[in-house]
Amino acid sequence: MTLSHLEASGLVTLPTPQATTRIAAAVRGRARTWTPVCAYTDLLPERGACALVDGHQIAIFRTFDGALYAIGNRDPFSGAHVLSRGIVGTRNGEPTVASPMYKQVFSLVTGVCLDDPDVSVPVYAIRLNDNVVEVGR
Ligand code: FES
């Protein structure tokens, strides 16, 4: 099944062109190895999941619009690996996650902390390959 088949089936809504462009810009130029992490249907909308890729904990999110995002799981304020357990939301239309520790909000698109823009978490490439979610590093 291709992505367009999934989209036609209503199972997947592709990210907005703006989000796709911004994600592409954020991860542009990096060498990329794609690691399959789970089935798309394993991800519940607005609930994060944690994947271990090459020894790195990566927080993966599927938003209500069907888009996928991947950021580092480590909350830089507390040092705890908890961002996959944060509350997903939006701020000014930007998809976000709030750390369950001290509640700082991070952009899922850029990884920047919207409460303290000097702080950010890594952003990873993420894609759908048939029904399999893959993270790129
Ligand atoms: S190990 Fe995944 S959230 Fe803590």
Textual characterization of the structure:
- With 137 residues, the protein is mostly beta strands.
- The protein has one domain (37-136): Rieske Iron-sulfur Protein, CATH 2.102.10.10.
- The protein is 12% helix and 35% strand.
- The radius of gyration is 14 Å and the shape is globular.
- The two termini are 24 Å apart.
- FE2/S2 (inorganic) cluster is lined by residues 50, 57, 73, 81-82, 84-85.
Give the SSE map.
Blueprint: H1 3-8, H2 17-27, E1 34-39, E2 49-53, E3 56-62, E4 68-72, E5 87-91, E6 94-98, E7 105-107, E8 123-129, E9 132-136
Antiparallel strand pairs: 1-9, 2-3, 3-4, 4-8, 5-6, 6-7, 8-9
The structure holds FE2/S2 (inorganic) cluster (FES).
Would you kindly provide a brief summary of this structure?
Keywords: 2Fe-2S, Iron, Iron-sulfur, Metal-binding, Nitrate assimilation, Oxidoreductase. InterPro entries: NirD (IPR017881), Rieske-like_NirD (IPR012748), Rieske_2Fe-2S (IPR017941), Rieske_2Fe-2S_sf (IPR036922). The chain has helices spanning 3-8, 17-27; strands spanning 34-39, 49-53, 56-62, 68-72, 87-91, 94-98, 105-107, 123-129, 132-136.
